[in-house]
Write the C-alpha cells for this entry.
Amino acid sequence: MNAVVCLWWISVWMVDAVYSGKVCMKCRYFLYHYKPNQGKCAAFPFVPPVDHATERQRLAELLVTGYAPPIEMPPIDYTYCTTARTDETMCGVEGTRFEPKF
C-alpha cells in the first residue's frame, strides 16, 4: 500500500513538472483511483435515475396495507474527471471548478 501511495505522489510531482495548469490530480475534488485517468470528480455527483416501476409498487403497497417498505437509496457515484473536463457545462477545459488541494 505504501508503494502505491509513493507512486501516486511521484506521478503528481511528474505532472507538476510537465504541466503547471489546472490538473484534476491537484484539485481538492479529485477522488483517487489507482489508474489516474479513471479518477472521479466529487464536484459532480451522479445519482442514478429512479425506477418508476418500483415506486409504483411502493405506492400500491402503501394503499393496500397502509405501510410502505423503506426507500432504498441508490448509491451515489461520481462523474469521471475526463468527462467533467471535456464537458463545458461542468468543469470544462478551463477548469472552472478547480480548487487547489495543497
Q: What stands out?
A: Residues 40 and 81 are 5 Å apart (CA to CA). The first strand starts at residue 30 and ends at 31.
